[in-house]
Amino acid sequence: MHNPEELFNAASIICDDGIDHETIRSSVTKILKAVGEDPEREGLLNTPNRVAKSYEELLAGYRIDPYKLINGAMFDVDYDEMVIVRDIEFYSLCEHHMLPFIGRAHVAYIPDKKVIGLSKIPRIVDMFARRLQVQERLTSQVACFLDEVLHPHGVAVVIEALHLCSMMRGVKKHDSRMTTSSMLGYFRKNLATRTEFLDNISRSAEPLHF
Ligand SMILES: [Zn+2]
Asked: Is residue 144 annotated as a catalytic residue, yes or no?
């Protein structure tokens, strides 16, 4: 099994206490003043508090215990065909603007005697999405974590996302949609394996939209 340090490293966990609500509250009050708003008006009175609470949830991924995440959901099996989990919805924040990017992840792996409960894969995506991210890193972190946990023959992750920082800031809309992928093991080495996965996820896939 894993030693704690390896698993916490693979999950890129920040091992400290919770987020600093007080600093977020006072900073949001300053931002409200800086944009010309009145932090004392009724609608905004509780906003710094709400923002602090929402960051605690939106950025919870740094502090999720990876042992709890995978605990009890690893099984030894004699199965070595591709396992695919498609259309995993996720919500993240871009690290450049702290604005949302949202989309879908498709994850596949080829087991080597070990599988993980299917419901855990969306939770792993969620753990990495609930941080300040760039889509490329989110993609490779999910792939590397599964590789570390399962030591499978291969892992593939494809993520399609819409970036609100481009959509809201008047950049041309077609620039706001991005697809990234990370292929390890068989998926990287073997064209037929990769094609099987990509064919599967493109089948009857609905385009991303709001
Ligand atoms: Zn951005």
From this structure: no
- pLDDT tens profile 178-204: 999 999 999 999 999 999 999 999 986
Q: What is the DSSP letter of 111?
A: -
Q: Residue 141, class by beta-carbon neighbours within 10 Å (0-12 exposed, 13-18 middle, 19+ buried)?
A: buried
Q: Of 94, 106, 133, 144, which one is the catalytic site residue? A: 94
E runs forming strands in the chain: 74-76, 83-94, 100-110, 114-116, 132-133, 154-163, 177-185
Q: Beta partners for 163? A: 101
In angstroms, what is the span from residue 12 Cα to ligand 1's centroid? Answer: 21
Q: Output the pLDDT for position 47.
A: 98
> Partners of 183 in the beta sheet?
156
CA of 170 to the centre of ligand 1 (A): 12
For residue 4, report the distance from its CA to the centre of ligand 1, in Å.
Answer: 33
Q: How do residues 156-184 score in pLDDT, each as one tens digit? A: 999 999 999 988 887 666 568 899 999 99
* Per-residue model confidence (pLDDT) at position 171: 60
Domains of the chain with CATH codes: 4-61 (1.10.286.10), 72-202 (3.30.1130.10)
Choosing from 106, 133, 135, 160, the catalytic residue is 135
